[in-house]
Amino acid sequence: MTARIAFVASDAPTAQIARAALASRFGDAPEKEADVIVALGGDGFMLHTLHRTQGLNAPVYGMNRGTVGFLMNDYSESDLPERLAAAEEEVIHPLVMEAQSADGAHHRALAINEVSLLRSGAQTAQLRISVDGRLRLEELVCDGALVSTPAGSTAYNYSAHGPILPIGSDVLALTAVAAFRPRRWRGALVRSSATVRFDVAQPDKRPVMAVADSRAVENVLWVEVRSMPDIGHRILFDPGHGLEERLLREQFV
Length: 253
What we know:
5 helices, nucleotide-binding, ATP binding, NAD binding, kinase, Rossmann fold, 6-stranded antiparallel beta sheet, Tumour Suppressor Smad4, elongated, alpha+beta, NADP
């Protein structure tokens, strides 16, 4: 039985051209009726597609029409049905961010890669960090800090010198961004079931924004981050090119 495929693409011309060619060749089912969703673009578009289709039953198979394509498979038009039939599924669980902003509003957002706090003014941020209700760091003076999932550990977390986490590991990475004090603090690993809380000191003088993947909240007073094991994003990869292999390969380049 031929899989019903829904094709989605980023706004990039290369992605739109690919979508038109694939839809003409293999048909284009409505997302709600599809057996699989094929996303054409880069990693940012893949994250957007995973968030947007969270409530659907179809897994997402990405093909790279962007730049890095860490979450994507190589692009090819000729053998798509065979590749989809042989693809291996991986399930990743997002983080949930709860935050309160200075205007009193409460915000909630999901993040597949990471939740980051970043200074949004001229001065460094001052953060207080607690894990599961216990104060762990009285003062972190920095440009920011983040909590990363294993799937997102090679993205912003890695560029901030955080560790690459094996897929399926039961930990999250807590990483500082340009820490000034304490100078030698290199972050921490916490259980995936832990709740990490950031409290912002002097928010008027040292404003901080929080970002869950691409959703930003300005002028936060506090942020709590925890994993959501009851939510699973289904991603398809070509055999031998799944997240475990990609994360391992990144550590030897």
